[in-house]
Amino acid sequence: MSEPFIGEIRSFGFNFAPYGWAQCNGQLLPIAQNTALFSILGTTYGGDGRSNFALPNLAGAVAMGAGQGPNLTPRSLGETGGTETELLGMTQMPAHTHPANANAGNGNQPAPVGHFWAQDLGGSKEYGDTGPAQMAPGAVGIAGGSQPHTNLQPYQVLNYCIALQGIYPPRS
């Protein structure tokens, strides 16, 4: 393995940081013992900039490239965002309908298979042979449990670490 650049981030399949590396879990480091790394990172990921600075926190997060791609919003180095769960409200759902077709007359069948909902004056659940006539808008109510759903993309957990020592990266 070649000597890393100071501040380089790599993923590892084991659960510890190798010598000269630290896990990317947002911990604060003293500037006095890590001057080269601080000169590269500054307070991009946190810290007070006087006595300490923070490492990136990739615990439970996915890395994203800085900048702006086609049709994407700009992202700055160190920016965080996203949620693990999301509750979709009425204002977030696209306009759509749930049309339910019905028989225009009285029902004459006791089973729904291959038939349409129909009017029934006698209190039984009946269905008609012909359709489709549009049901009243109130016939189909609101559905859903008003609970958040998971918002996570498929993932594989790895150990992200940042090089504390190595070659100071030259600027181009």
Describe this protein's structure.
Residues 95-112 have a biased composition (Low complexity). Residues 95-132 are annotated as: Disordered. InterPro entries: Phage_tail_collar_dom (IPR011083), Phage_tail_collar_dom_sf (IPR037053). The chain contains 1 helix and 11 strands, in the order βββαββββββββ. The chain is mainly beta and 172 residues long. The strands form 4 sheets. The chain has a 4-stranded mixed sheet, with no helix packed on it. The protein has a 3-stranded antiparallel sheet with strand order 1-11-2, with no helix packed on it.
Features:
Phage tail protein; Phage_tail_collar_dom_sf; single chain; mainly beta; 172 residues; 4-stranded mixed sheet; Phage_tail_collar_dom
Q: In a few lines, what is going on in this structure?
A:
The protein contains one helix and eleven strands. By secondary structure, it is mostly beta strands.
The number of helices is: 1
Radius of gyration: 30 Å
* Terminal CA distance: 24 Å
Total strands: the figure is 11
Q: Determine the fraction of residues in helical runs and give it as a percent range.
A: under 10%
Low-confidence stretches: none
The secondary-structure class comes to mainly beta
Order of helices and strands: EEEHEEEEEEEE
The overall pLDDT, averaged over residues, is 86
